[in-house]
Design a protein that fits this description.
This protein is an alpha+beta fold. The protein has helices at 5-14, 28-37, 66-76, 133-139, 157-164, 173-192, 229-232, 242-249, 268-280, 297-309, 327-340, 356-364, 376-390, and strands at 22-25, 43-47, 60-63, 80-81, 91-92, 96-100, 104-115, 120-126, 144-148, 195-206, 211-213, 217-220, 253-256, 261-265, 287-290, 315-322, 347-353, 371-372. The chain contains 13 helices and 18 strands. Bound molecules: guanosine-5'-diphosphate and manganese (II) ion. Manganese (II) ion binds at residues 52, 201, 215.
């Protein structure tokens, strides 16, 4: 689950990480009011969307008067913001964060993430902040410093020193102290809130020598949400693809993709392999969908409906290896969805495993039009052929 910048900064405050004074606003009036109440000018108007690169995309504006603040807010609010991370259609901005402007002296990068290969958290720090860390890593990897954390021991003060004392020039002693404690605080936050990412880019030193988190990004591990009930309330469904949101509601593992072949598969591994085979056959998958072992007829039905709702879908591949999910349950779910919806795209089915005879019989005795593939390679070739024909 992703959080907005203003939500991340509220959490930063709780953990003692200094952030500029600010207030979120959903209208121009609210934004002006926020400006009046906050120290400034200057103020900063920041689009609140789940995407980075807002600065370059025009979603972060430093303004020097209330008139400018008003203008910037009305430019940004209610329109899609296009950044490197949003795709060409952009993301609609529903809220802006109004903040007191700060005088930036230096910009650093700081983040905590899980390093999967080392199976532990890693604190990443760079004095080349403000820009994208991927670029820094590609161009000057020596500027990206890492401290791996033994989760049983936790963050050790010397590790913060390893990072901060790399700075050239080294800031004054008070600033160094602030940085050391800030890094420790971000690690504590990361662990306490079950984060998958906690990032500050840029972490700045102001002209007055204060360390300050100018930007903030927090992603919460979905598996931690059962014990992070307060955080769950911060979820913003407006930021999600509507089909992804619907799938989430029914507990279906679905991720919308940009291709045109809908895939309905049981098992995450088989779903990944099916996507590979579709690509190998020269087409692109429209989604990842793992209906899961314990899927009920109702979930199969919902999953199939979601695939059909995607207007890009030109053909559907159902690839089921019945194990815990029985083939007859799958067949009944598909038929239940087909009864409700007028299906205009070809369906290719490859069915094997538990209760396969029963599943096939259910499908064959129905009005559903479909083709049967004998194996995965044939299934992918057939579905690709259907898409070519319809094109
Ligand atoms: P992002 O582009 O989505 O990562 O948004 P950021 O919050 O990182 O803002 C982009 C850039 O705007 C930052 O790297 C800063 O250089 C600049 N910026 C943000 N806040 C202020 C501010 O208060 N004063 C000044 N001068 N620049 C700011
Ligand atoms: Mn940033």
């Amino acid at each position: 689950m992703k959080l907005h910048e203003y939500q991340a900064k509220d959490i930063f405050r709780k953990f003692g990480i200094p952030v500029p004074k600010g207030r979120v606003a959903a209208s121009v009036d609210e934004a002006v009011k926020a400006g009046q109440d906050l120290p400034g000018p200057p103020w900063v108007v920041k689009a609140q969307v789940h995407a980075g690169g807002r600065g370059k995309g025009g979603g972060v504006r430093v303004v020097k008067s209330l008139d400018e603040l008003k203008q910037a807010t009305s430019d940004i609010l209610g329109r899609p913001l296009v950044t490197k991370q949003t795709g060409p259609e952009g993301k609609k901005v529903h809220q802006v964060l109004i903040e007191e402007g700060v005088h930036i002296d230096r910009e650093f990068y700081l983040a905590v993430v899980i390093d999967r290969s080392k199976a532990r958290p890693v604190v990443i720090f760079s004095q080349a902040g403000g820009m994208e860390i991927e670029e820094v890593a590609a161009r000057s990897p020596e500027l990206v410093l890492k401290e791996f954390v033994d989760p049983k021991i936790g963050w050790m003060p010397f590790q913060a020193k390893n990072l901060v004392y790399s700075l050239d020039p080294l800031p004054g002693p008070d600033t160094v102290k602030e940085l050391l404690s800030l890094i420790g605080a971000l690690y504590r936050l990361f662990m306490a809130q079950d984060c998958s990412l906690a990032e500050i880019n840029p972490l700045v030193i102001t002209k007055e020598g204060k360390a300050l988190a100018i930007d903030g990004k927090i992603n919460i591990d979905d598996n931690g949400l059962v014990r992070q009930k307060d955080l769950k309330a911060l979820d913003d469904p407006r930021e999600k693809d509507p089909l992804d949101a619907k799938a989430e509601q029914y507990n279906i593992n679905y991720i919308r993709l940009s291709g045109n072949i809908g895939a309905m598969v049981n098992g995450a591994g088989l779903a990944m392999a099916t996507m590979d085979v579709i690509k190998l056959a020269g087409a692109e998958p429209a989604n990842f969908l793992d209906v899961g072992g314990g899927a009920s007829e109702e979930m199969v039905k919902k999953g199939f409906e979601i695939i059909l709702e995607d207007k890009n879908v030109k053909a559907i591949l159902i690839n089921i290896f019945g194990g815990i999910l029985r083939c007859d349950v799958l067949a009944r779910g598909v038929l239940a969805a087909a009864e409700k919806i007028d299906i205009k795209v070809p369906i290719i089915i490859r069915l094997e495993g538990t209760n396969v005879q029963e599943g096939r019989a259910i499908l064959q005795n129905s009005n559903l039009k479909f083709m049967v593939a004998k194996d995965m390679a044939e299934a992918a070739a057939m579905v690709t052929e259907q898409v070519r024909r319809s094109a």
